[in-house]
Design a protein that fits this description.
- The structure is a single chain.
- This protein has one domain (12-119).
- The chain has helices at 10-31, 36-48, 51-59, 69-80, 84-107, 112-125.
- The chain is an all-alpha fold.
């Protein structure tokens, strides 16, 4: 019986780097408390309104358009089953991992030169202080 050969490519290296960065950021995000000034109003709003009312409000907002923001919060609130902090932080970490994976996939890394540019792109993506302003 022959073992399958696993080919490690530059694209795999780029994806691995992005995942390590995303999981590292996810770890530190999981240690931060929920921001009361950003979250409390939305959490209370979805707690007392149904999903349909929240969806209608999202798509008819006049101030700014954040489609599905309150719907996502409502679904997360329902899924949390009392474990609100853990559920919200897990979703945040998964969003980081998905963003990193999709970003590196868009880069289409095929060579060592393009793989060496990935740390710069990931730093810019996740907002290193170097790129502020």
């Amino acid at each position: 019986m022959t073992r399958p050969v696993i080919r490690w490519t530059w694209s795999s290296t780029a994806h691995a780097y992005a995942m390590i960065v995303a999981l590292g950021l996810g770890y530190f995000i999981s240690k931060n408390p929920l921001q009361v000034w950003d979250c409390l109003g939305n959490l209370l709003h979805v707690q007392y309104n149904g999903l349909w009312a929240v969806l209608v409000e999202d798509f008819t907002a006049k101030a700014y358009l954040r489609p599905l923001l309150l719907a996502q919060i409502d679904l997360t609130f329902d899924l949390a089953n009392g474990y609100y902090f853990e559920t919200y932080k897990t979703i945040h970490a998964l969003q980081l991992v998905a963003t990193a994976g999709l970003f590196v996939n868009l880069l289409r890394v095929t060579s060592m030169t393009s793989a060496l540019a990935v740390p710069f792109g990931v730093a810019a993506l996740f907002g290193a202080h170097t790129f502020g302003g």
